Every structure is written in structure tokens, then in C-alpha cells.
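tool=predict chain=A
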Amino acid sequence: MDWELNFMRWANQWWSSSFFDYTIPWLSYLGSHFAVILFILITLVITKQRRIFRRLLLLYGIQSAIVYGLKFLIQRERPFHFLQEVASKLSRGPGEIIDPSFPSAHTAFSFMMATILAHWFPRYWLLFYLIAGFIAWTRIYLGLHYPTDIFVGALLGYGVTKGFFYCLQKKGKGVHPSRSIL
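tool=predict ok
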């Protein structure tokens, strides 16, 4: 944990700016529960397929259960409790629900959505993962997560989603807007 705090202190010296301090708290919400639910609802509206809607809800539920199970099992305190220089950035955003730090739910959800979109639109996979990586970085910038929280959140978001796809393919059922696979 010390190396992570030292890294965050060092990084805060060179990447901090008043523009970022104002905009990053808002951009960070692209990985929130609200964003995931909106993503699922938009998918329902566009595809008009309840089967895809139900499977995306199931994936979101599985992802949430794993992430929040780990959060409350491990009970890691957020880094802003130890980093006074980043704590003020939180007040510039829409507000945070402060649960335990490990792993990052925003990162897991953003990588879950990126993995789904990369599966549906493989040509743009790099763009989707870059956006997910940016959302993950915002969590470190705000002092809400340690780098290892982000790393594990990204692995969970990607891995659980890929495992979900694998299970659906194994059963011969998929969740893809134009094909039978998510």
C-alpha cells in the first residue's frame, strides 16, 4: 500500500490541473451504476430484444455481486483518507457513495461495457478499451482508488464478461444484437 500512496503523491504533482479537477469527477461517472443501467436500457431500445436485456441484467448482477462481495470482504480504506492533497477533488463532482476501495466497481463496469461493445463491434475494440482505461485512471486521479484496485477491477470487468460469453456459447445461447452471441 505504501508504494501505491507514494505513486499517487508523485503523480498528483505532475498530472493535477484545475481543469481536470473540475471535469474528471463528472467523467468518472461513465463507469457508474447509472451508466451501466443506461447502457442496458439503450441496448433494449435499440435491439428491442428482451432476451439480450435479461442477459445483460444477469451479467450486471453477477459483476456487482463479485465486486461488492470482494469490497465488503476485504474492507480496504480509500486512499483519500491518507492523501490530503487529493481529497479536495471529490467536492467538485456530483457526489460519491463511499464504500470500501478494493476492487474498483467503476473500473469493473467500464471494462464490462467495453468488452461487450468490443464483442459487438470488434473493429473499434481499441477505442472501447481506451475509454474504459481512461475511466479507470479518473478513479486514481480523484484519490478514490489505488492502482491495484483499478487493475483488479479491470481484470474482473473483462474476465467476468468473457466468462459469461463463454458460458452462453457453451450452452448455445448468445446475446448479440444481430447474431445469437453477446
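Residues 4 and 10 are 10 Å apart (CA to CA). The chain has one domain: 25-170.
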